[in-house]
Design goal:
This protein is 40% helix and 22% strand. The chain contains 11 helices and 12 strands.
Amino acid sequence: MNSQELKMNFKEVYQADPDVLYFSPGRVNLLGEHTDYNGGYVFPCAISLGTWGAIRKRDDRQLKFFSGNFKKEGIITGDLDHLEYNPEAKWTNYAKGIIHYFEQNGYRIDAGMDIYIWGNLPQGGSGLSSSASIEMLFCGMIEELFGYKLDDLKAIKMGVDTENKYLGLNSGILDQFIIRKGKKDHAILLNTADLNYEYVPVDLGDNALVIMNTNKPRALVDSKYNERVKECNEALTVFQKDMKINSLSEVTEADLIKHMSELDSRHLQRVRHIVFENQCCLLGKEALDNDNLQEFGRIQNASHVSLQYDYEVSGVELDTLVHAAWKQPGVLGARMCGAGFGGSGIALISKDKVNEFEKNVGKIYEEKIGYAPRFYTVEIVDGAHRLREED
C-alpha cells in the first residue's frame, strides 16, 4: 500500500484527511529463536510485510478505529477515559495499551483520534510479529500526532509492557526492538541481556528471503510458549546452585557438561538448545561478515534441527515445510522462525528458483497436511517510520 492509497482509504472512512501516515514492518529471525527470554543473542531483520496506519486528531476524547482487514466490523469506538483491557475490543486493545503507557510515562494525550490501519502480515500467529508491528505503529503515530519524540528504548518498552502486562503474554523484547530499530538491508545482532546491538549488512546478491506460512492458526497465549519459559526457569535453578548467573544464556558448553547429570532429559534438551542457538547467532554473523551465504544457510539448517529435536517447538507443519525446502534446488538454508507450534518458516533461496520452490514445497505440504501453505518473498527494510506523501 502506498501513501496515496492509505490517505484515500482513511478519507473514505472518516470524510477527512489524516494528519499522519505511518508504516511499521513485521520481523523475522534469520537466527536466534527462544533465546530472547533467556537473555541470549537474537539475529532478526525487519521485513517488507507489515502494518500501515493513518491517524487524525479529534476535538473530543473519543477513539475511533477502523481496520481495512476487517471492514465488516465497521468503526469500533472507545474513549480516552476507558483504556482498560477488554477482550471484546479485539485488536484495538493494542492501541489502548500503548495510549495507557504513554500516559503512565507522563506523556499527556489530551485529544481523541480517528485511526485507520491495514496490514499484510499473515494473521493467526504467523511468527512474523503482527502484534508488535501494530504496537510500534501506534506508538509512532501517537508520537508524531502529539509532537513527542521518545527514546527508542522507551518506545520499545511501551510495546513490551503492552504485551506482558496489558495483554498477558510472556514475550521478550526482540519483536519491538527490531521493528522500531530495523535498517534496510541489515540484520541486528542483539544481546538481549544488556541490549547491546550491532547492525550486520545482509547482501543477498541473487538470492531471496521467502516466508513459508503453515496457515495453521496459533494463539501464543494458549500455546506451549509459556511452558517453555517455565522449563527454562526451572533448568536455570540447577546452574544457580553454584554459579552466579541470571539466565541460561550465560551457560557455556563446559558448564553444561559439568551439570549435565543433574538435569532430566527434558531440561537438558532445553538448555542444550539455548547454548547451541546462541552460538548459531555468533557464527551466522561471522558468515555474513565474510559474505558466505552458503555457510549462513547451513547454520540456519542446524538451528532448525535444534528447535525440532531439543526445544521441540516446530511441529509436523513446520517440519514438513523446512524438510521439503532443504531438498529443493537453489535453497541455501531453511528454518522455522518465531515461537513455533505452527506459524512460519523462512528459506534463503536463489531468486531464479523461487517459483519452482513454491510449487514443489507447496505440493509436498498439501499432500501431507491437507491444506496449502502460503509463500511471501520479502525484502529487508527500515524500522517503523512516518511515510511521506510520495511513498
